[in-house]
Amino acid sequence: MMDFSKYQGIFPAFYACYDDEGAISPERVRAFTEYLIGKGVKGLYVGGSSGECIYQSVAERKLLLENVMAAAEGRITIIAHVACNNTADSRALAAHAESLGVDAIAAIPPIYFHLPPYGIAKYWNDISAAAPNTDFIIYNIPQLAGVALSSALLREMLKNPRVIGVKNSSMPVQDIEMWRDEGALVFNGPDEQLLSGLAAGAIGGIGGTYAAMPELYLAIYRLFGQGEIARAREIQDACCHMIYKMCACKGNMYAVIKGILRAQGAPDIGGVREPLFALQPEDLPAVEAMAAEITALVEKYR
Q1: 153 vs 184: CA distance, rounded Å
Q2: Residue 106's closest CA among 59, 31, 180, 43?
Q3: Which end of the chain has fewer CB atoms within 10 angstroms, the N or the C?
Q4: Phi-psi region of 270 (alpha: psi -120 to 50; beta: other; left: phi over 0)
């Protein structure tokens, strides 16, 4: 029986770290990695949606992961999302991730052209074969990928002994129960339902807003484990309301989050890459207010 305890807990989705000219900044990647380790998170999910992976080259994605791994030095669990919209590049990123010693790789299905299930299975298995000694996690995010994981496809993938689970970012909590019943480890994806996902049997959470307020998500996870559900629900509600405010700004949510981090005194990790919309001047009062509110919430629920 394998020990999957390294996957139990809170995994912030790592943000792209750019310099002032918009290029990947190794120094900022390392500083942000150290910052999140200091918050006590279980691990990091690198190169996913929150990391703006679809707007980066293979070389940029390798550079970012190399610097996360160099900074982490084995202290936390690292899951590297390696999917590109073609098999060759995805396999190259998978092999590179394994060479660096990541704990697991993950992949969305191919996007744009809707492949049949056997085509998706071949794509994922081809990626896994490029990193044969590394755990593989399916990334189910149908609202963006345009294709949803099914029980039949998951059963087919679980024939691959390296496939251990699903990062489930679909909104129905029922999906977590379904994938768990098939024998997969499941990570809750939607930040708004971490508590519900844990109740449905998720092993932990991977989230795009975790890095902006890791202490709150860590508290939800801890309180759930202690059976203090009412208190955990109170914090979950607070996180949800904060997410709604982030999404109400004119700039892209990740531009807003990076602004909040700067206002909190966290490392400056730059902006976002076009066509994502940059933080706008009219967003700044809201950013300052959200940073202050998060600080107050962390103090309240410490």
Answers
A1: 12
A2: 43
A3: N
A4: left
> Looking at 15, 123, 139, 217, which residue is catalytic?
139
The list of the chain residues with pLDDT below 70 reads: 1
CB 136 within 8 Å of CB 128 = yes
User: Out of 62, 167, 210, 254, which one is annotated catalytic?
Assistant: 167
In this predicted model, what pLDDT tens digit does every residue of 178-209 receive, in sequence order?
999 999 999 999 999 999 999 999 999 999 99
- Rounded to an integer, what is the distance from CA 129 to the centroid of its chain? 23
Q: What is the 8-class DSSP label of residue 239?
A: H
According to DSSP, residue 232 is labeled H
Catalytic (active site) residue 123: no
C-alpha dihedral (76, 197, 299, 75), degrees to nearest 10: 0
CA-based nearest residue to 131, from 160, 96, 161, 173 = 96
The question of whether 167 is a catalytic residue gets the answer yes
Q: Is 297 helix (H, G, I), strand (E, B) or coil?
A: helix
- Placement of tokens 């914090």 in the chain: 235
Peptide bond into 275 cis (omega under 30): yes
Contact call for residues 209 and 247 (beta carbons, < 8 A): no
